[in-house]
From TrEMBL, chain A:
Coiled coil: none annotated. Keywords: Membrane, Transmembrane, Transmembrane helix. Pfam families: DUF1129. The chain crosses the membrane at residues 94-116, 136-157, 169-192, 198-217. The keyword Membrane applies. It comes from the Bacteria. This is DNA-binding ferritin-like protein (Dps family). The lineage of its organism: Bacteria, Bacillati, Bacillota, Bacilli, Bacillales. It comes from Tenuibacillus multivorans.
TrEMBL record, chain B:
Residues 16-86 form the Transcription regulator PadR N-terminal domain. It holds the Pfam family PadR. It comes from the Bacteria. This is PadR family transcriptional regulator, regulatory protein PadR. It comes from Tenuibacillus multivorans. Signal peptide: none annotated. InterPro entries: Metal_resp_DNA-bind_regulator (IPR052509), Tscrpt_reg_PadR_N (IPR005149), WH-like_DNA-bd_sf (IPR036388), WH_DNA-bd_sf (IPR036390).
Length: 224, 109
């Protein structure tokens, strides 16, 4: 079975667990899947084994606590500690794919915003002048920051998994995080000095670049 | 890690290898076998050990259809695993008798 089939089978089989066991198992599943530097296939295999074990134990009248103990987080950490790390080649592919998707989304969204602003709100021109050096510098800083934000999100989600955090508080945390992360990009753009050649740019270039990057990202994905 | 957990971990590894030597098993089966022999470990504790043994290439897992239907991951002993088990046997013999004797209250030194 490949990784995709394991995940699909897991989704189906999980429904057979009792409500309590399912909650216990799914918390562990989320937490273990969020350990992003582990081999995905090995991760899914052990998750499948744990699920199969629970299903059989359930038929014998045992609960998740009977099988995996009172402290699911500790248990999940033990599992993660023994999982093999993702191989470097794959890691580079994933990073490359991530950067391409990020840049594609950035290019396409900025083009769409510009077009909407132009046609609906009568703001902005479709062609405008940009400082090439400034634009490139902005992107070079934005990529590592986006990565950092992703890692912060992953760590936050892991931290949150076994705690029953109040929905209002969670919403507040997301809101603050979203605001500061978008704000950070605006601060960079605002303080970046103008340098490099001034060139004529067209909004549709952004769209074309975005689509090309998206296709590239897709092809990297199918390589993995 | 305390001496107690380290000791138990090593023993559990040896026992798991010994069960797999007798018979190819999958996770749930293995936990039942261990309990059958009177080892009262929590069932879940076998999975971190199974992962470690695979990393050390002492056992190999293979997805296979089980008699009851669904695919299960069955574990086999590798040649290195067989060697490790012989080592464990040897070491166990080496400590078993002296420790038993020391613990025995009736014997005088």
């Amino acid at each position: 079975m490949n990784t995709k089939e394991l995940i699909k089978a897991n989704n189906d089989k999980r429904k057979l667990l009792t409500k309590e066991t399912q909650k216990y198992y799914e918390d562990m599943l989320i937490y273990i899947r969020l350990s992003y530097d582990k081999s995905e296939h090995e991760t899914e295999e052990i998750l499948t084994e744990m699920l199969d074990h629970l299903l059989e134990a359930q038929e014998d009248g045992k609960t998740a606590v009977d099988v995996f103990g009172e402290n699911p987080k500790q248990y999940a950490d033990d599992i993660i500690g023994e999982l093999p790390k993702i191989v470097t080649k794959k890691r580079i592919k994933y990073m490359g794919m991530g950067i391409l998707y990020f840049l594609a989304a950035l290019a396409i969204l900025s083009a769409l915003f510009n077009v909407v602003e132009h046609y609906l709100l009568d703001l902005n021109e479709l062609t405008y002048k940009i400082y090439l050096g400034t634009q490139i510098a902005n992107l070079m800083i934005a990529i590592p920051i986006a990565f950092l934000q992703l890692i912060v999100i992953l760590h936050y989600l892991r931290w949150e998994t076994f705690k029953n955090i109040n929905k209002v508080l969670a919403f507040f945390i997301y809101w603050i995080f979203g605001l500061t992360s978008i704000g950070l990009f605006f601060v960079i753009i605002y303080f970046m000095p103008s340098f490099g050649p001034l060139i004529e740019w067209n909004v549709w270039f952004n769209l074309i670049i975005g689509v090309v990057l998206y296709v590239l990202a897709r092809s990297v994905k199918s390589f993995i | 890690m305390s001496l107690r957990t380290q000791l138990l971990k090593g023993i559990l590894e040896g026992c798991i290898l010994a069960v797999i030597e007798k018979q190819v098993v999958y996770g749930y089966e293995l936990s039942l076998k261990l309990q059958h022999f009177g080892l009262e470990v929590s069932e879940g504790s076998i999975y971190p050990v199974l992962l470690r043994l695979q990393k050390e290439n002492l056992i190999k897992g293979k997805m296979k259809k089980s008699p009851s239907g669904p695919n299960r991951k069955y574990y086999y002993l590798t040649d290195e695993g067989q060697e490790a088990l012989e080592d464990f046997r040897h070491n166990w013999e080496w400590v078993k008798q002296p420790v038993d004797q020391l613990l025995d209250r009736r014997d005088n030194l």
